[in-house]
Design goal:
By secondary structure, the chain is an alpha+beta fold. The chain contains 23 helices and 13 strands. 52% of the residues lie in helices and 11% in strands.
Length: 448
């Protein structure tokens, strides 16, 4: 970390806009430091996502120094300065009161003390301040040591930090998942799972998503289970945790699947229905219909966490259909009908979920992976050369069917379209309007 010319190399990692803001404050006679995640990421040789500065300049003074600045949370001392490529948030050194609502402090007082400002932060690795212009590092809570030890530890008393904002309990595990760090044992003892009920669904959703798409979700999920935070956040997982093998499989599937939001959430929720469908027959366990039950449970979770509709639909489709038949000898017609049933937009995600599901299952034979590979190859060929995969791809629509058969809107129209679709999937060359109408005329208006 402290190699020769370290500061020079550090400055090269910092965008010129951030250096400009630091220098502008310094030239006006104020202290200014990089704080928050940026010092942590720079010390870990990672690229920061956000650029936050702390200063002893009051918000009204910051606004006079940057003509385009606008108040982001002026009551809390934060002013945002937009540049072409990025934004810099500048916050006045502050002290805070109690967090009665479990999210924001009851009062904020500005202070000339950087150390007092750092004392209010969540974890020691986030309580480091850097002044790259004067080559100064301020670390009153041994955050650099925590980084060297790869340790997530609260600033001060854990119960106090978590009591101020219960979302910090999730952040404790999220940082373990994103950085591959371990959690401090005393910090974990300070977790009170019931406090999480104070946190909104949206905030929980965003923090859990960051954990799930991280490089080491296993560390975060196992920690949440160990502390009792996971069932407090998602009570539906209580039954999953009662079957340790099932939870281990879930975690392994999450770790194995590609790190995309919809895929990771689908892997996390895909076996949620197993405890409710568990049947013992002889010396074997069965979970008949667990994918359908799991989709119902997942739908309640996604609604509670206020997921955007499109993302929720993708996750639910993957959970609902993750037991799809991946038979490499399936006929082309059956394969087309499968794609129509699960949706063209979901089929590749289902293949990835099946692959991760196999990876996460101990003792799976190599032939299972071989069969999935053959199935995927056939599917790729079909998708590349054939477009008749859904009702929308048919050469006729519902209005044309109603007009030709003289029937009224209703379930009957959908039944006829399904009959046409099955007929066309037997031979995609049939997907021409005149051939379909001829088929309907031959079959009459009562296809069955």
């Amino acid at each position: 970390m402290w190699r020769p010319n370290w500061w020079r190399r550090l400055r090269r990692q910092i965008p010129e806009e951030v250096l400009f803001a630091l220098n502008r404050l310094a030239e006006a006679g104020y202290e200014a430091y990089l704080v928050g995640g940026a010092p942590r990421d720079l010390l870990l040789d990672r690229t920061p996502e956000d650029w936050d500065l702390a200063t002893d300049a009051r918000p009204e003074k910051v606004k006079t120094l940057f003509a385009n600045a606008w108040p982001l949370g002026e009551k809390f001392g934060t002013v945002r300065v937009p540049f072409d490529r990025l934004e810099v948030d500048i916050t006045t050194f502050r002290e805070e009161g109690a967090y009665s609502d479990g999210r924001r402090p009851d009062w904020v007082n500005f202070t000339p003390s950087l150390e007092a400002d750092l004392a209010r932060r969540d974890f020691t690795m986030n309580a480091i301040a850097l002044d790259p212009l004067r080559e100064k590092l301020v670390d009153p809570f041994a955050g650099v040591q925590a980084l060297k030890r790869r340790l997530v530890k609260t600033v001060g008393e854990p119960a106090v930090r978590f009591g101020e904002d219960a979302l910090r309990m999730l952040r404790f595990y999220r940082f373990q998942a994103t950085l591959g760090f371990r959690g401090d044992r005393e910090t974990e003892k300070g977790i009170t799972p019931g406090l999480i009920t104070k946190v909104s669904g949206e905030r929980i959703r965003d923090e859990l998503t960051k954990l799930l798409v991280a490089s080491f979700p296993k560390a975060g999920l196992e920690g949440m289970a160990r502390s009792g935070l996971l069932p407090a956040v998602l009570p539906e997982f209580g039954a999953v945790l009662a079957e340790p093998g099932l939870f281990r499989h879930t975690v392994a599937t999450v770790q194995a699947i590609k790190p995309a939001t919809g895929l990771r959430w689908a892997a996390f929720l895909h076996d949620l229905g197993k405890p409710r469908t568990r049947v013992v027959q002889g010396d074997r366990l069965h979970y008949y219909g667990h994918e359908k039950v799991g989709a119902e449970l997942a739908a309640a979770i996604l609604e509670r966490l206020r997921f955007p509709r499109k993302v929720a639909e993708q996750i639910l489709a993957l959970v609902r259909w993750h037991m799809f038949p991946a038979d490499p000898w399936m006929t082309d017609a059956a394969l087309r009908r499968l794609v129509a049933r699960v949706g063209k937009e979901n089929i590749k995600g289902l293949l990835e979920l099946r692959r991760a599901d196999l990876v996460g299952t101990p003792g799976v034979a190599a032939r299972a992976f071989s069969g999935l590979t053959q199935f995927a190859a056939r599917l790729e060929a079909l998708l590349a050369g054939e477009t008749v995969l859904s009702l929308r791809d048919l050469a006729v629509n519902g209005h044309e069917v109603m007009e030709f058969l003289g029937i009224q809107p209703g379930p009957r129209v959908g039944e006829v379209l399904q009959e046409i679709f099955h007929w066309v999937t037997e031979d995609p060359a049939r997907n021409r309007k005149e051939l379909i109408l001829e088929y309907l005329a031959t079959r009459g208006n009562n296809p069955d």
